[in-house]
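One-letter codes give the sequence; the integers encode the fold. A sample entry reads:
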Amino acid sequence: MAVEAPAPTPVPGTPLKTLLPQILPALVVGVGSGLLFLGISGLAERLQHVLWSTVPDALGIGRYSALWMIAMLTATGIAVGLVVWKVYGHAGPDPAASGLGGPPLAAGVVPGLLLASTLSLAGGVSLGPENPTIAAAIALAYWLGRMVTRPGRPAPPGEAWVALATAGTFGALFGTPVAAALVLSEALAVKPPAPGHGPAAGGSLWDRLFAPLVAAGAGSLTTQLVSHPSFDMGLPPLGSPGFGDLLTALVVAPLAALFGLLACYVFPALHRAFGRLRHPMLILPLGGLLLGLLGVLGGQLTLFKGLAETRELVTSADSHDAGELLRLAVVKAVALLVAAAAGFRGGRVFPVVFVGAAFGLLAPALVPGVHPTVAVSSAVLGVVLATTRQGWVSLFIAAAVAASPAILALLCLASLPAWLAVTGRPLLELDEDGHALH
């Protein structure tokens, strides 16, 4: 006897009169998030050029000599330590316990947070711009949104501004609204918004994503028009994948995930060790000195947020043997741990991509015939999955690095053993008590 599958229960749609008023705020927040990201990134790049090119050239010192790397990163630690110590708001909460998004910070904290982040980015610290930029966008959107609300009318809930600013900044960071849609879909699946506490709450998933996607589209278009961002690392194109490619993906992704988990297990202990120093003017300068020493060990490629360095590493992969690639992956991972544990303000996604790329290039270096695109994208998938525990974002970033549609099927399959390796394990984020989140 055939059993018919039950028909899905239709979700009531959100009225048009509820969705239409969300468009203008979403556009404003999206464009504002894009401009904020562009402004901070542009300022950091100009300052980086001064610190790593103009000044050492004027002093007659090698731009990436051991002396300059140690001096520059130690000085960056001192500068960021002063901001954390003296500037109002102390540059925001402990970054080790801060993920992507979160509740709005007080608007007065934003200048110190952005200053500390800009100094970190320019000074060569192994962190990206994503966490501080998203936190600043959320705080400003929430503050401005409350200011422009008409008297006598209820202000939109805080969760609405958080969703718009998060989506707008993700769109700006990756140059496409797809990443924002994936992040928010995963967040809504874990914790659906209560009625009246989010964009189009109570409707279908697409109703709830409507305004954030408008913001993400506006943010991504803003950066596309100005800077043309791309995660394409110049890897060779992948044609029709074969069984060898599938085997590569199924092996490399979980191995890379386990490599990423090592960092997650070390992170809480390293954070506690720095915390024993208690004062930011001890913690951050020491962190900067250690980062300088790591820069000497790993070289120029292991400095900065890692996106341009990943592209350079991939294009010069033939000039690195397996030992050098492993050294680059380990040094960058340790630099990321030191930077995050010592309290430098920045995100962890971009450096993790470099770690994954260096780890993935080990496969073709050790086993001739392995396709580098499959190995690199699978390793990026595994390491990002281990450190963030966000499956959709990990798949998106790994596919974007490969820039090859044929890789998607392999990555979807490779994500399964990688997920089994990391699920229930700690990730690269702590709770308020300094314990690893799971």
